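Dear colleagues,

As part of the handover before I leave the project, I'm documenting each prediction I ran so the next person doesn't have to rerun anything. This entry is a single chain, and its sequence is reproduced below.
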Amino acid sequence: MSAQDAGQPLPVDMKKLLLENMTRENGSVKQPLPKRSIFYQICLSSYWFGLSVITASFGSVIWPSQVLSIVGNSSKDFYMGLLACLTSLVLFVLSPFVGMISDHWKGSLGRRRPFMIVGTVITAVFFMASSFHTTGSSFWVLLGTSVAWMFGVVLSNAPFVALMPDVISEEQRGTASSILAFTVVLGGLSGALCTGALSYNNYYIPAYAFNTIVIVAFLLPTVIFVREEPLHEEHPKLQWQELAASFVLRGTQYHDLWRVTHGRFWFDMAVCGIIPYLQYYFVDVLLFPPGGPAERLASSLWPPSSLVVYRRASSGDT
């Protein structure tokens, strides 16, 4: 019978060996993560707040109004759908590649923060480039600048999603996830209502400026206070075959992941399929005057819909 089976304490050398075996990854020793303070976890969630602000702002307020002002009433539905579809396609296609590249990134700032910084700068620059498009502008120029800033969002968001498991231990991930979920709902509420108040008479510079300030300001606590360990030199090289193979999920061990993905697909499809068209519904069906009133009413319905989605998600269905 071993010392462990008999309930006796393990020798110091054996404890060290077991710890190294439990934390060894790809030929390098990964030290156990320390306990993080609430302040640290709030700083980690700060950038998520900024991303949630811009998601709500563009989905419910800016894009529907901007597309209407550019293409007119008769074509707004098609072009709004085209804009949402192509920008979402950028997010869908590039996210796995950016995430995998960040997994193997070597630098003094760590694996994730360099992408977050560069991505946010790109987003901010093309936010302001998009802000001037209104009546008389070209839809295709708006589409181009929107795809460009969405690329910036992908460049920052995909690595950011992987930051929490990098720096938060398994014992604290429940608390960290609850703080993240709270900031998502709070960001959606703040973004939609503030942007609705700033959008009027087909003039979008204040709304874009607000979102630019928010995404930059709320990046800072995350990159300043959430430090990463640089990647170990012995980490394996990037293998694109591994990325391709990772999309094929076989076996019963992936049952829960498929369930989560399926649920998330339908919830996101419902939100993305309804929210951008609320302004048009208020004007075309309920006969609200176009402009400020319709924009503000559409923005006021984003927070309740977000609460429903995230309440359902926290129950385990997504």
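The radius of gyration is 23 Å. The longest strand covers residues 24-25.

All the best with the project,
I.
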